[in-house]
Design a protein that fits this description.
With about 100 residues, the protein is of the alpha+beta class. It has a single domain, classed as Alpha-Beta Plaits. It is about 15% helix and about 15% strand. It is built from 3 helices and 4 strands; from the N terminus they run αβαββαβ. The strands form 2 sheets. Strands 1-4 form a two-stranded antiparallel sheet. Strands 2-3 form a two-stranded antiparallel ribbon. It starts with about 25 loop residues before the first helix and ends with a strand. Bound molecules: iron/sulfur cluster (SF4) (2 copies). The site of one iron/sulfur cluster (SF4) has 12 residues, from α2.
Length: about 100
């Protein structure tokens, strides 16, 4: 008969703490960091008010085409410079522009 072996040092298993699950990203954080400037271009009458008011001067009329009303529609040509201020949307008399930040 084999005698019981003397008790050795007790090994304590390492405690692994699971990190808490990350909260889901908010809808704003899921979106691009850049604002969105959306044109309902067939409503545009090319009055250029939005172009005049834009503080970063990134709007212009697209002279390469006309909308169904026969006007060159306003477009944004350098979205990276858009501050998302919303001035273009506010001044447009025909509610052509929607700005999402
Ligand atoms: S949101 Fe402001 S900066 Fe951006 S296009 Fe409109 S007026 Fe210009
Ligand atoms: S203010 Fe409105 S109608 Fe006038 S050019 Fe800009 S988007 Fe078109």
């Amino acid at each position: 008969m084999v005698p019981p072996s003397p008790p050795g040092p007790t090994l304590t298993p390492p405690v692994v703490q699971a990190s808490p699950p990350s909260p889901p990203a908010s809808p704003d954080r899921q979106r691009s960091a850049l604002p969105e400037v959306i044109f309902a271009e067939n409503l545009c009458k090319g009055c250029e008010l939005c172009i005049t008011v834009c503080p970063t001067k990134i709007l212009k009329l697209d002279t390469s085409r006309v909308n169904i009303r026969g006007y060159n529609p306003a477009i944004v040509y350098n979205l990276a410079e858009c501050s998302g201020c919303g001035s273009c949307a506010k001044i447009c008399p025909d509610s052509v522009i929607t700005v999402r930040r």
